[in-house]
């Protein structure tokens, strides 16, 4: 799967691609769920890192970054989706490449999404100002002037946030619904025996 996606990127086939940036210490359950579910929906997902190669999560599980963040052209990106985990989320908050990508994608009105501690990186890029969001308990203080609520998945315009590993499937399915439609989301949830949580989603 990894080599196939890398080839897609190299051939310029990730126009409107979904970038999942991984830096050391990311939350593995969240990252793999996001990547897997979006690819099941046949969305062009690109896993990016500080450099190409294996990135270790906060439980020492490695996931391959198919491209370096410096290789990505932000104008071709449809969405950036951030897993949480510490220190992964803090690394995304401080990494110039990740921050530049988030800022440019947000400025173009495209989707920026994050789960768990990941909203910290969106806040660092100035994306959450005035937004209604959610996050993993204890990270509220890092989200600036955003309004933080305790819903499992929150959609506020082009900003999508969620709470943690236990909400990763709902988060990923919500992204599918936004990116390719509710019919695909519902069908995918059915085939995966997954529960959608539309009732817990707040759309502002």
Structural write-up:
This protein has 204 residues and is an alpha/beta fold. The protein has one domain: Rossmann fold (3-Layer(aba) Sandwich), CATH 3.40.50.880. 34% of the residues lie in helices and 23% in strands. The chain has 7 helices and 12 strands. The strands form 3 sheets. The protein has an 8-stranded mixed β-sheet with strand order 5-2-1-6-7-11-10-12, sandwiched between helices. Strands 3-4 form a two-stranded antiparallel sheet. Helix 2 (28-40) packs parallel to helix 6 and helix 6 packs antiparallel against helix 7 (182-191). The N and C termini lie far apart (36 Å).
Q: Which key terms come to mind for this protein?
A:
23% strand; disordered N terminus; 204 residues; alpha/beta; 8-stranded mixed β-sheet; two-stranded antiparallel ribbon; 12 strands; globular; Rossmann fold
Topology:
Elements: H1 2-10, E1 17-21, H2 28-40, E2 45-49, E3 53-56, E4 62-65, E5 67-68, E6 77-82, H3 88-94, H4 96-107, E7 111-115, H5 119-124, E8 132-133, E9 147-148, E10 153-156, E11 159-162, H6 168-180, H7 182-191, E12 201-203
Parallel strand pairs: 1-2, 1-6, 2-5, 6-7, 7-11, 8-9, 10-12
Antiparallel strand pairs: 3-4, 10-11
Helix pairs in contact: 2-6, 6-7
């Amino acid at each position: 799967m990894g080599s196939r996606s890398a080839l897609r990127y190299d051939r310029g086939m990730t126009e409107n691609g979904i970038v999942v940036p991984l830096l050391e210490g990311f939350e593995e359950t969240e990252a793999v769920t996001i990547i897997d579910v979006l690819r099941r929906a046949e969305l062009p997902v690109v896993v990016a890192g500080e450099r190409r190669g294996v990135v270790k999560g906060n439980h020492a599980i490695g996931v391959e970054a198919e491209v370096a963040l410096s290789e990505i052209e932000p104008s071709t990106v449809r969405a950036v989706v951030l897993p949480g985990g510490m220190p992964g989320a803090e690394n995304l908050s401080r990494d110039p490449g990740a921050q530049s990508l988030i800022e440019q994608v947000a400025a173009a009105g495209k989707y920026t999404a994050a789960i768990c501690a990941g909203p910290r990186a969106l806040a660092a890029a100035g994306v959450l100002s005035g937004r209604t969001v959610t996050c993993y308990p204890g990270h509220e203080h890092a989200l600036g002037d955003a309004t933080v609520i305790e819903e499992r998945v929150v959609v506020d315009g082009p900003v999508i946030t969620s709470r943690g590993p236990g909400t990763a499937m709902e988060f990923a399915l919500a992204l599918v619904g936004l990116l390719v439609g509710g019919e695909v989301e519902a069908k995918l949830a059915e085939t995966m025996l997954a529960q959608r949580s539309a009732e817990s989603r707040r759309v502002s």
